[in-house]
C-alpha cells in the first residue's frame, strides 16, 4: 500500500555505501536504495561468489536483480539540488 507517503528525510535519500545523496538512485528488491554505481560495483565484487546481497539488510539475491532506476527518488532530489544551487549563488553574488 502506498499510504505511507514519501518521506523526504535525508537518510532516505542517502546511499549507505558512499554515504552521500543518491546519484542515479536504484531500488533493489528488498526495498533499499543505492546509487546505481555503488550497488553495481558492490555486486561486481561479489559476483565470483554468485551472491548479490543488500549491504544494509544482507538479504541475498540470486540471480543478480536487474537494476531499475528509481525515477521517483531521482525526481525528489531535484528540489534539494536547486535549493543548494540557489543558496550558493546568492552567497557568491553577495560577497
Ligand atoms: Zn552511493
Ligand atoms: Zn536491503
Automatic annotation (TrEMBL):
One of the record's GO molecular function terms: zinc ion binding
SUPFAM superfamilies recorded: RING/U-box
Keywords associated with the record: Metal-binding, Zinc, Zinc-finger
InterPro entries: E3_ubiq-ligase_TRIM/RNF (IPR051051), Znf_RING (IPR001841), Znf_RING/FYVE/PHD (IPR013083), Znf_RING_CS (IPR017907)
UniProt keyword annotation of Iron-sulfur present: no
Residues of the RING-type domain: 15-58
Listed name of the protein: RING-type domain-containing protein
Source organism of this protein record: Anabas testudineus
Amino acid at each position: 500500500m502506498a499510504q505511507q507517503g514519501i518521506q523526504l528525510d535525508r537518510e532516505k535519500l542517502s546511499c549507505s555505501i558512499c554515504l552521500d545523496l543518491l546519484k542515479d538512485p536504484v531500488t533493489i528488491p528488498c526495498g533499499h536504495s543505492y546509487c546505481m554505481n555503488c550497488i553495481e560495483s558492490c555486486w561486481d565484487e561479489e559476483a565470483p561468489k554468485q551472491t548479490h546481497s543488500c549491504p544494509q539488510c544482507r538479504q541475498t539475491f540470486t540471480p543478480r536483480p536487474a537494476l531499475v532506476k528509481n525515477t521517483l527518488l531521482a525526481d525528489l532530489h531535484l528540489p534539494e539540488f536547486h535549493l543548494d544551487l540557489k543558496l550558493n549563488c546568492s552567497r557568491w553574488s553577495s560577497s
